[in-house]
Write a structure and sequence with these properties.
It is a single chain. The chain is an alpha/beta fold. It folds into 2 domains: about 200 residues, NAD(P)-binding Rossmann-like Domain (Rossmann fold), CATH 3.40.50; about 40 residues, no CATH class. It is about 45% helix and about 15% strand. It has a 7-stranded parallel sheet with strand order 3-2-1-4-5-6-7, sandwiched between helices. The relative contact order is 0.16. The structure holds NADP nicotinamide-adenine-dinucleotide phosphate.
Length: about 260
């Protein structure tokens, strides 16, 4: 199986920690040169220092706020002018919790800006090169709520559906150019995001965090949360030459938690 990404440049967003950082590691291990993007420069520099690197694999950082579409556009123009991007991992932090009907309109706007508008800005920045070389990989890190909305994550459930519709449309538009577009749907994964979800659920239900965590793990057939590198490995596979005929899919990495087929 051809997993070799030597010579490819991957832009991995939301990579200062969590699933993004793990994806950066897995892609670097397959030979790609990585640029990690997030807001915290010091954390990004630590990530880059820890990435696997053989001769010729020079990793880099890109400090950017995905919530600021205007400055993001300028930052990306400079980035692709320096080194065109072959692989885009579109990822950011999840929206705050709460019910859909109680969320402020601004919360929806913020989530759509960071998850969908930023994704569109990123895709438009990397597309000219991908199209010219007739090869590209776009992977969006979304959520199982694309298929099964999660109670207490109203804004998140809403924006994930929009991202999935956008991605499916892109996959059909860009397939003739040799560009694949796929979504990875993480289940419960050991990152800061799951700590936030457990904390909010425990507060909402006036329960102990450990009990909430145990109940969540018990709802997964694998009986545990995912390690970020398990999700990162699936993302890296979708970017590999071996996955060239996989496009337009939403692939759960959830230990079998979703009941739907
Ligand atoms: N973990 C789970 O159990 C789980 C389950 C389902 C879905 N997901 C989804 O998967 C995605 C990744 O999750 P995760 O667990 O890896 O999250 P995480 O550990 O909270 O990491 C989020 C990353 O996004 C970056 N980020 C946040 N806001 C940003 C902004 N405005 N501009 C640029 N970068 C930003 C953060 O870096 P900076 O703070 O340095 O900017 C960080 O690197 C999220 O959408 C999450 O909701 C996660």
């Amino acid at each position: 199986m051809d997993l070799d990404l030597t010579g490819r440049h991957a832009l991995v967003c939301g990579a200062s920690e969590g699933i993004g950082r793990a994806a950066a590691h897995e892609l670097a291990a397959l030979g790609a040169r990585i640029t990690v993007l997030a807001r915290r420069e010091a954390a990004l520099r630590d990530v880059v220092r820890a990435l696997p690197a053989s001769a010729g694999q020079q990793h880099d950082v890109c400090v950017a706020d995905l919530a600021d579409a205007t400055s993001l556009r300028g930052t990306l123009q400079a980035l692709v002018a320096r080194q065109p991007v072959d692989i885009l991992i579109n990822n950011t932090g999840g929206p705050p919790g709460g019910s859909a009907h109680e969320a402020a309109a601004e919360a929806y706007l913020e989530a759509f800006t960071r998850h969908l508008v930023a994704g569109q800005t990123l895709v438009q920045a990397v597309l000219p090169h991908m199209r010219t070389q007739r090869w590209g990989r776009i992977v969006n890190v979304v959520s199982t709520s694309v298929r099964e909305p999660i109670p207490g994550l109203g804004v998140s459930n809403t924006v994930r559906g929009a991202v999935a519709g956008w991605a499916k449309t892109l996959s059909r538009e860009l397939g003739p150019d040799g560009i694949t577009v796929n979504n990875v749907l993480p289940g419960f994964t050991e990152t800061a995001r799951i700590d936030q979800i457990v904390r909010e659920r425990a507060a909402r239900e006036s329960r102990d965090e450990a009990a909430v965590r145990a109940d969540m793990a018990a709802s997964v057939p694998a009986r545990r949360f995912a390690r970020p590198e398990e999700t990162g490995g699936v993302i890296a596979f979708l970017c590999s030459p071996a996955a060239a005929y996989v496009t337009g899919v939403s692939l759960p990495v959830d230990g079998g938690r979703m009941a739907s087929i």
